[in-house]
Design brief:
The protein is an alpha+beta fold. The chain has a single domain (3-181), classed as Aminopeptidase (3-Layer(aba) Sandwich), CATH 3.40.630.30. The protein is built from six helices and eight strands; from the N terminus they run E-E-H-H-H-E-E-E-H-E-H-E-E-H. The protein has helices at residues 18-25, 28-31, 43-52, 103-118, 133-142, 171-181; strands at 3-4, 8-12, 60-66, 70-81, 86-93, 123-128, 146-157, 160-170. It has an eight-stranded mixed sheet, with helices on both faces. The longest helix is centred in the middle third of the chain and has 16 residues, at 103-118.
Length: 186
């Protein structure tokens, strides 16, 4: 099943997507914007990772596509806790030319719709670095997420420690946002 936003399509990750993902993982400019870390990866390592994660029911990995540009990035819903109905969400858009076009907001809205309406989750969590202003504006501005806390000096990047901003959204807050903005109306 593909997940549709207003103009993005989120689809299952395919073997043919691994070169794009490998390029994103190995891009130091993208790496410095995300919580967590990536080690330099080879194509062989990327393919091994892909194969080992194909049938994982706790982690959903999706490729972000637009009709005009094809695959432009990836999004995930990971560490799904089926008992407590929660998961972690993150995304990467591969090139600056795809930023500030609404792709990120439409992706987050489509992920939330799938997580809350199809998977029946109750909350999504995320993490943002303090200097990643575009992500803060996207999640906490446009998409209705809240800052729930800060893990002080929790992320080591660029030879220094940075705070980690913990963000989240509840199912009820998603529905309030959709009703208030009429997001899914034609």
């Amino acid at each position: 099943m593909n997940i549709r936003g207003k103009f993005v399509l989120l689809r299952a990750m395919e073997e043919s997507d691994q070169d794009m993902l490998l390029e994103m993982i190995n891009d130091p400019e993208l790496e410095k914007l995300v919580v967590g870390y990536s080690l330099p990866s080879s194509r062989e390592q990327q393919m091994a990772w892909f194969r080992s994660n194909q049938n994982d029911m706790r982690n959903i990995r999706l490729v972000i596509c637009t009709e005009q540009d094809g695959p432009v990035g990836f999004a995930n819903i990971v560490n799904i806790d089926w008992k407590n109905r929660s998961a972690f969400h993150g995304m990467k858009i591969g090139s600056r030319k795809f930023q500030a076009k609404g792709i990120g907001a439409d992706t987050v809205m489509a992920v939330m719709r799938y997580a809350f309406e199809e998977l029946q989750l109750n909350r999504l969590d995320g993490a943002i670095l303090p200097y990643n202003e575009p992500s803060k504006k996207l999640y906490c501005g446009k998409c209705g997420w809240s800052i729930e806390g800060v893990r002080r000096r929790a992320v080591f990047k660029g030879n220094e420690f940075h705070d980690e901003i913990i963000v989240g959204i509840l199912r009820d807050e998603y529905y309030d946002l959709v009703n208030r903005t009429n997001y899914w109306s034609l």
